[in-house]
Specification:
Elements: H1 37-49, E1 55-59, H2 64-67, E2 74-79, H3 97-107, E3 111-116, H4 119-124, H5 134-154, E4 159-162, H6 166-175, H7 202-216, E5 221-225, H8 242-255, E6 263-266, H9 273-277, H10 307-321, E7 325-330, E8 341-342, E9 345-346, H11 350-356, H12 358-363, E10 366-372, H13 387-396
Parallel strand pairs: 1-2, 1-10, 2-3, 3-4, 4-5, 5-6, 6-7, 7-10
Antiparallel strand pairs: 8-9
Helix pairs in contact: 3-5, 5-7, 8-10
Amino acid sequence: MRAVLLGVMVIAACGGNGGGGGDDTMTPDGPPGTKTLRDRQRDLAMALRGSPNFMIGIGNDNQGPYTHAVPIDLHYQYLVGYGDQTGWPTWNAMGNYPLFFAQTAASHQVTPMYTYYQLALELEQSNDAVLDDTARMHQYLADVKLLFQRIADSGQPAAVQLEPDFFGYLMQREAMGRPPAAIPAKVHHADLPECASLPETAAGLTRCIVAIGRAVSPTTKIGFHASVWGAYYDEQDPNADIEASGTKVAQFLRAMGGDDTDFVTVETLDRDAGFWETSGGGATCSVTGGTRGRVYWDETNVNRPNFTQHLRWVKALTAELQRPALEWQTPMGVPSTTCGGTNEHWRDNRVHYFFGHVPDLVDAGIAGMTFGTGAGGQTNLATDGDQLKNAATAYMANAVAM
């Protein structure tokens, strides 16, 4: 599923715990040197929020959750572009956008989360050569280091999600005979000693990014994004090996450095179901014949596709990777029996289902769920009839401990 950057407003300045992924210690559930997946779910929540409760969040809307008074744990924002062009380091002087975003979040007792999204755009456009471009990769890695420096400057807990869909594209290339270890990537630069010992390949690049984060902002929690289409299974096939797909993606992420991360992000759909049922806002609506096929999932979990399938996939992913998941960029549409919808008022049932089944998400290895629009014209906090606000308020009054 492709993530698409929304327009970003520059934020004006306003008035953790734990380290990396290798901090295994004695736990009540295992021998010395081990942690269970549930331990890691709790650890992530404690580091980001100081509480072991399942987390909720919103993204891609700047002041949205604050102006609409939605109680949340996490607020995320995309960071895209290069610092020598018009990318995020230029949105504020000295690359202070992440710092200001963190300060705004802290003023509302919220934890910031950043979605770093640039290399996926390059691979989507088949520009694999950018990874072997010394100047471009130096700029990219310098920008990444700047992000972690600004997070460290904030003195606050934070989460960074790395490159949605990038790993999915790399899985596609591996399937075509080009594994990440065979794709050149320039990671050796004099001012980036964190990466000096890593191989100059795509596999070394992702480990390089994590190494920079650990060195510059050791309390920041870092996660890779898992694309289900990287190991596709047919949602309509009753015999599809869902667990094999989740396991394969997890094994790939581990080979890319996922063993030194703190979480993995997953998503169900990048826009409202009703939007895709109308093939992107068209006049004709079809439950089965839209751009993405059947995307309004069955809440009874009888017909396919359904939520049980998704949670089975996530559970296989988290069990193999032994890292908790965060549901990310979950559509905000409102349930309806009528196909489609209209601009900013599309139907979807993911908010409704997820808030009604938090214990099931926890059992699948998920530590939190975040909601947000993957493009313009989607249902949002101003158009959802307070669905998300009401659900979040009710949840916060009786939060689920992991």
